[in-house]
Each structure stands twice: as C-alpha cells, then as structure tokens.
Amino acid sequence: MSVDTRPGPPTTTGHVRFLDRVNPVAAFAAAICYSIPMLFTIDAVSALVGLGGAAVLLGLAGATPRDVVRRAWPLFIAAPVSAISMLLYAQPGGHVYGTFLLATVSDNSIRLSIAVGLRVLAIGVPTLVVLAGVDATRLADGLAQLCRFPSRFVLGALAGIRLFDVFRDDWTAMAQARRARGLGDSGAIRRGLTMAFALLVLAIRRGGVLATAMEARGFDGGERTWARPSTLGRDDLVLVLGAILLAAAALTTSIVTGSFSLVGTGAS
C-alpha cells in the first residue's frame, strides 16, 4: 500500500486551490514544457511576456503574492546577481561606456544583463511556485503509477525525503549537546567537520534500520497495490496546455518583434 494516505493540502478557507488539485506529475511536465523552450533565446521581450503571462496564470490558479515571495525569494537575489555579472563581463559590443580590469560595460552587456535578469525570473519564478508546494507522497504515487517507475526506488526515495527534517533535528541536537559539554564555542570548521561525520554515521545506521523495516513490510518488490490511486484529469491537462501556450506566446512575440536571439549565436 502507499506510504501515506493523507489528502492533498487544503487552503485555510477549506477549499482546494487549482495548484493543489493538479497531479504533481503534471506539474513537473508543465514546468518542463514551459522552461525548455524559454532556454532557446536570451532576449528581454520573451522574458517579459513569459513573466507577465505566468503572473496572470498563477493568479488565476490561486497563487497569492505571499506564495510567490515565500517560494521564489532566492530568485529575487539570484536575478540581480546574474544581471550584474553579465553587465560587467559579457562580450563587449556597440558603444563602450567604461572598463575596469576585466570588466567592460557596453551596449551589448547592458542588453544581455537585462535579458538574463528577466529570464532568470521568467523561468524560475513560475517553476518554483508550481513545484515548491508539491506533496512528496503524491509525487511518489504519480511516479510509480503513471510513469511506471520502479516502486522500490520511488518509495525508497520518498522515505529519504521524509528523513530530511529528522537530519535537521539531529544536527540541532548534536550542536546543543556539544555546547552543553563546552565543545561548541570555538573551532567552527573543526566542529562542523566533526558533526558532519557524526551525522553521516547516524544516517548510515538509520538507513540500515529503515531498509530492514521496509523489507519486513513487503517493500522489496512484487505486485503492489496503492491506497490512493494517482490519476490525471482536466486540471492537469489545463496546466500542461497553459504552460505550452505561454511558452509559445513568448517565443512568437520575440520572433515577431525581431528580438529573438538564439542562445550561443553571440551578440546581435
């Protein structure tokens, strides 16, 4: 049977939002269908269209600005960093505004920095918002039942994911225990290496116990039934088609406006 029979996560109002209803397998398929085509070009127009369209679609799907910030905040740091790096170190082209050591600011570097910063947001934000809330148990059900992945591999991976929180608690407990013994106030590097080794030993022991327990409960293969069937429905089709149409609209707009710039072809 399945590892977990809990239903999908409801919202605080008791209603299940669109993003919570879709199958996690469909969410991953939509992310692939949207992000891969967007990687073929590096221009600001397609990125703006993709980012704006994704904002509208995510709003219609029930994602709030708080969800976007909470799930995609690392990208709001990574995008400016990527843009600044491209601004300073991209291949010079057009008018050169200034140079310093290896850094050169030119028309081409400015254009590329804007395009790269927007593209990081255009690809990363909708992908993280859709995938960050995926329930690991539902994803495992979908991978085993719909994608026909080996159930032993899927359930083992699911068990490993469930142990991440346990490892964090173990690290905190070890740090507190060492501090109580007067060993945690100096030598940060040595302390970190020692605790990492102890955590590795603990993880190996726990993995062995978990493997034995799962094998004793029949997780070692054979015919398997599932407590919660994983199916695809209309919402999943809408999500995948929406991702495909959004990517197509972004690239079409870029081509029509003449801003399409194939990655690897150099500056225009």
UniProtKB/TrEMBL annotation:
GO cellular component terms listed in the entry, alphabetical order: plasma membrane
PANTHER family in the record: SLL0384 PROTEIN
Identification of the protein by name: Energy-coupling factor transporter transmembrane protein EcfT
Keyword field: Cell membrane, Membrane, Transmembrane, Transmembrane helix
UniProt subcellular location: Membrane
Broad class of where this protein is predominantly found: membrane
Transmembrane segments: 27-60, 72-90, 110-134, 237-263
Protein topology in the membrane: Multi-pass membrane protein
